[in-house]
Design goal:
Length: 335
């Protein structure tokens, strides 16, 4: 049988999935630290030995690149050298094209992972709003009549609330709120990278150690006590100065703020497009579920549709599935 794989190459994580769902992997690979992408893709090529590969990218935005074009060419050059089989790139329309073709708009391949997921959902589900909350960002994509109706570039999607730059793991807590209620006082927080949302959701037991797949703010551990210490630090305290209850309260306030931000963006899309069914995906699926319940929105979890592991890496899986479908269609046409 032909083996199709999809790879989602992000700035922080590279995700791999096969169309038959037997392969699903997430590799923390921060692009801005210098890349191990060559070694990882070479390993995938030799171990998986795919027949065809579908690629989506968001890593071109990493600040180690002077421009998106530099990042796109850097990443695609590594990909093309790693695989001895046809490689296909998905653009912001959810279509395959050859990235190395200089006659096309190379920028149309930037941050196109959501377009792959949207195309699969359009086929399998139909009209809906697709919301994918990952470690870093949240995509909110209207899907109508078999295709997405979203803006294309990150800049345009940010302007339309179709991209919210907040995620379950890597978001700096200081970007979400400026003060917290400690019961006996309203306390300003330190505008430093002392804690991230991974610390919040680990403290609240929404995620486990195995889900905390990014670096910690202080380079220390990922146990709950480590997370408590980092959350205490955002109010310039340590664990001798602030109670356990106050730390949990801080985490809950961060969570509610993040929910409000995403809920507002979803409501804007619901009102604009008249779509009320939400498809929730990503490592933040649990938070999206809470938002839908709070807002009385009809929803379905991608983990129920494709499994929890694939929900966390839906763009990679969608890319592989779409590639398989197109290959099967072209094969039948030739027959």
């Amino acid at each position: 049988m032909t083996r199709f794989i999809g790879i989602d190459i992000g700035g922080a994580n590279t995700k791999l999935a096969s169309s038959d769902s037997k392969i699903s992997e997430i590799h923390y690979l921060p692009m801005w630290k210098g890349t191990g992408l060559t070694e990882l893709l070479n390993d995938i090529s030799s171990q998986v030995q795919p027949d065809r590969v579908a690629i989506v990218m968001t890593g071109e935005l990493a600040d180690c690149f002077e421009s998106k074009e530099e990042g796109l060419r850097f990443i695609s050059n590594i990909v093309n050298k790693a695989f001895n089989c046809p490689v296909h790139y998905i653009n912001q329309s959810g279509e395959f094209a050859e990235l190395i073709n200089t006659d096309i708009d190379i920028y149309s391949f930037a941050a196109a992972n959501w377009a792959a997921s949207s195309r699969l959902i359009a086929k399998d589900i139909g009209d809906c709003i697709f919301v994918d909350m990952g470690s870093t960002t949240t995509d909110i994509i209207p899907i109508i009549n078999g295709r997405h109706s979203a803006q294309t570039s990150d800049l345009k999607r940010l302007c339309k609330n179709q991209l919210v730059y907040t995620g379950i793991l890597r978001t700096n807590v200081a970007t979400l709120l400026s003060n917290v209620n400690l019961g006996d006082c309203e306390c300003r927080i330190a505008s430093e990278l002392f804690a991230t949302t991974a610390d919040v959701y680990r403290s609240l037991e929404n995620i486990g150690n195995e889900d905390y797949i990014c670096d910690t703010a202080d380079g220390a551990g990922k146990e709950k006590r480590d997370c408590f210490r980092r959350l205490a630090r955002i109010v310039c305290a340590d664990l001798t100065e602030i109670s356990h209850d106050n730390i949990i309260s801080i985490a809950e306030q961060v969570k509610e703020t993040q929910k409000d931000i995403i809920s507002t963006a979803i409501t804007n899309t619901v009102n604009e497009f008249g779509l009320t069914k939400i498809i929730c995906a990503g490592i933040g699926e649990f938070l999206l579920k809470e938002i839908c319940i709070d807002q009385n929105l009809d929803f379905e979890l991608s983990s129920d549709l494709w499994g929890s592991k694939l929900s966390d890496m839906l763009p990679a899986y969608a890319a592989a599935r779409i590639l398989e479908m197109e290959y099967d269609t072209s094969t039948q046409t030739r027959r």
